[in-house]
Structure formats: structure tokens, C-alpha cells
Write a structure and sequence with these properties.
By secondary structure, the chain is of the alpha+beta class. The protein has helices at residues 37-44, 51-59, 68-77, 83-86, 91-95, 102-124, 132-143, 180-189, 211-226, and strands at residues 6-10, 17-21, 150-156, 162-170, 195-201, 230-237, 242-244. The strands form two sheets. Strands 4-3-5-6-7 form a five-stranded mixed β-sheet, with helices on both faces. A two-stranded antiparallel ribbon has the order 1-2.
Length: 251
């Protein structure tokens, strides 16, 4: 007698009751008002929403089979609920999920990219480099999610304030080509540069320096010394950590 296929739902605003077929999924509009992501954000603030609810706002709508929140949970589960891993998915990866078309994939990828740029913008204003963590915070948003290697150099004045930074090369998964002459020429062109910091990423996540990393660091250190320049550090950036040549006594 209880298997009627009906569920009694109370409207939290009007107090009225209505019958719903529980054999189909409830849509978000049928949830209690205070549980709907948009209304919850308005009444309680963005920090009250779970990661899945925030992604659901980007998705906008679900399908007949699942709500936007359920779809968001499925996407997050695929990356072990790790937002850093989610940020590595490209448009084609996102479109692999049933219910995610190009428009929804663009919304998710665009929001994650905006988050990276916000973090980067906050770091860029911290002009003075005082430690290896300052360098890591400056470059992690640029390098930690890449699937290829990039080699960057930061040029500093005598007060250890950043004059400019320059991407020297872009390579493949296993390495990239570094030209010592290009690095030092850029320093000489900006006559107030007195020191430099090297930085590159390891897409594998292994932050231990290779033999080639050690060789190029020593080569640059010796060449820079001839021009009265100093190599202060060389950072290798992994997924969420780094190796500092200076901190580990290699410089």
C-alpha cells in the first residue's frame, strides 16, 4: 500500500503540499529554497557553498537524469575532489562527461583560469623577493598545471626587487632548451639588473633536479659571475611543491 510512487513535498514558503513522483529525480527548483545553490549563495554567501555547488552554478542546468549539483559531484569525483586536478582538465576532457557540452565546459574552464589569474595578480604586487617561497608563489600559478616544461628567469635589482621576468623557452614533457646567451643578454639590456633567479617546472611532479638541471645552473652561475651578476636561486616546481637550489645548498 505504500508503493504508490508518490512523494509528498512541502513548499517552505507557502506551506502548501504537493505530490511528486519519486521514481524520477527531483529538480533543483523542487528543493527547499534554502538548499538551492543560487538562493543559498544570496542568503548565506559564497563561502557557504560546497565545491560541487559552486561548480553547479557554472554548469547552470542539469539534465532529466541528474541535477546540476549531481553532475558537478560526478565531475569532481573523477579528480578525487581536487580542484587543482580539475584545473588541469581541458575543454575536451570536460566534454567527455555526459551532460557537459561546449558551453558548460567553457564556463568551468574559464572560471578556473580566472581563479589562477587572481592568485597570480595578488602575488605580482609583492615586488621584493625575500625567499624561495616568494618565487614559488609567483610562478606556481603559471607552471604547476602545465603538461610541458617552461624555463623562466626573474631579473632583480640590488634591493632584490623584480625588474622583469622572461620566459626563456618552452619545451616538451621531458625538457626544454636553455640558451645562456639569451638569459645574460636580457640582463645586460636592463642595466640595473644585478641578480637573477631561474625557475622551471617538472610536469611529472618529481622535483628532484636532473643532471642537466645541475649543469645548466652551474653554467649560468659561472657565466653570470663574469658579468658581475649573481644567480640567487633556481626553483624546480612540481604540482604543489618545489625544490630550491639555494635552500638545499647547491648555490
Amino acid at each position: 500500500m505504500f508503493n504508490t510512487g508518490l512523494l509528498i513535498i512541502k513548499n517552505s514558503i507557502s506551506g502548501n503540499y504537493k505530490q511528486m513522483d519519486y521514481t524520477t529525480n527531483l529538480k533543483i527548483k523542487d528543493w527547499a529554497v534554502e538548499d538551492r545553490p543560487r538562493e543559498k549563495m544570496v542568503s548565506k554567501g559564497a563561502d557557504s557553498l560546497s565545491d560541487a555547488e559552486l561548480v553547479a552554478l557554472l554548469i547552470g542546468s542539469g539534465s532529466r537524469e541528474e541535477t546540476a549539483v549531481e553532475l558537478a559531484k560526478r565531475i569532481l569525483n573523477s579528480v578525487d575532489n581536487n580542484l587543482n586536478e580539475l584545473g588541469k582538465l581541458n575543454l575536451e576532457d570536460l566534454k567527455e562527461f555526459n551532460g557537459v557540452g561546449e558551453a558548460k565546459a567553457i564556463s568551468i574552464a574559464g572560471a578556473l583560469e580566472l581563479g589562477k589569474r587572481r592568485k597570480l595578480a595578488e602575488v605580482i604586487h609583492r615586488q621584493k623577493i625575500s625567499s624561495s617561497i616568494d618565487v614559488f608563489e609567483r610562478f606556481a600559478p603559471k607552471l604547476q598545471d602545465l603538461t610541458h616544461e617552461e624555463f623562466w628567469v626573474v631579473y632583480l635589482n640590488r634591493a632584490n626587487k623584480v625588474i622583469f621576468e622572461n620566459r626563456i623557452s618552452k619545451g616538451g614533457v621531458a625538457g626544454t632548451v636553455i640558451d645562456v646567451k639569451i638569459i645574460l643578454k636580457a640582463a645586460l639590456e636592463r642595466k640595473i639588473a644585478s641578480s637573477l633567479i631561474l625557475c622551471h617546472n617538472h610536469p611529472s611532479g618529481n622535483i628532484n633536479p636532473s643532471k642537466a638541471d645541475i649543469q645548466i645552473t652551474n653554467k649560468l652561475k659561472d657565466a653570470a659571475k663574469l658579468l658581475d651578476l649573481q644567480v640567487l636561486d633556481h626553483l624546480i616546481i612540481g604540482e604543489d611543491n618545489y625544490f630550491s637550489f639555494a635552500d638545499e645548498g647547491y648555490l
